[in-house]
Amino acid sequence: MRNKQIAYLIAGIVLIAAFFGCTTDDKSKQNVEEPITIQVEGAKFDIIESENLLTSSEFVFLESKEESHFSEMSYFLLSTEEFYILDPQKKHMVFRFNSEGKFLNTIGKKGGGPGEYNSAVDALVDGDNIEILSNNVSSDVYRYSKDGDFIEKQIYEPKYPVSFVKVPETTDYLFYCSFGDFKVSRVSKQGQFMDSILSQKQEDRIGMTLDVLTACSDGSVLLNEALYNIIWKWNGSDFVESYFLDFGDYTFFQGDKDEERYFQQEQGQGRWSIRWYQENEHYLYITLLFIPPDVESVEEITILHLLYDKENKKTYQLGNGDIKLRLQWPFVITNDNKLYLSGVPVEMAEWDPWMKVVKDRNLPFDIEGNPIVVIVDLDKLVKDDLN
Q1: What is the pTM of this model?
Q2: Nearest residue to 288 via CA among 314, 340, 312, 323
Q3: Domains identified in the chain and CATH numbers
């Protein structure tokens, strides 16, 4: 059980690295602001100790019983009034909890009957409805009420989707797909094709895994692909380079010679990878991994939890290397600067700062329970550091 998620993560990155290659559309580089550069390789960050992180946090323990328990690789949807978790690996449905962690119901079902699908690869909260994306030759979207009642199925043209979001302030979709001349398609809710975005080299292309597109509470939509050090942001009509992670000699620039350079010179020599990220108007939170050359153990992997303060243009490291993947899946930074993370109980049980908080606050911690919602007060965290 221990290290299972990390081993899964390594396997996924290694698999992608063996086949990866793509390019970005030139139009996304025209007439846009320079991306914010965050130095990583060789940088010395101001460290916010894990004890301070946890004391600046509140916790919600999701009810864990047989019908409400989801798999380890599940992830949270963008919502804080209630919590919605998609299990795309095992149960292929969405789990709904109230704000205090009480289990309410499940949404969606794998199968062949009405309102059932062959797999659930992504999901989103759309007002009073939950939408689940099923990965078929087409983009099949299944709509349900929050109580789990099936409303309708709609089929969209983009083929083999792996991620989707709603275009801010519209009812349109952005579908990220595995095949075709472009990575992203914009389609209206009614099914009308509107635009192709970010070109790709089909001969080098493989399907991406989950969490490619990320919707944020301030209305922004971010995009990152495995191995690349760039995070793109939707500007209303296109994705433009917004954040540039400086990985030094390990930076994998995007250009015509990238694939050749990577496979001939860089393969097997170590790689930084962006794993999770979220932002609002004031902060960017990002989790990074560095897999050394010829890695043999998960203990050799460097995992950084970084918080970029946009106003002060300052990058903090959360924890002193001890958080690892005990905290993951940042699913929202609210307008009042509360960061919502998911804590993994089996990993947190061996984290001394956490166990101290459990004892001091007499928390109902269950090592075999569902992930814990960790709500970090970022303003308090940064203010305490500045003082």
Answers
A1: 0.88
A2: 323
A3: 4-386 (2.120.10.30)
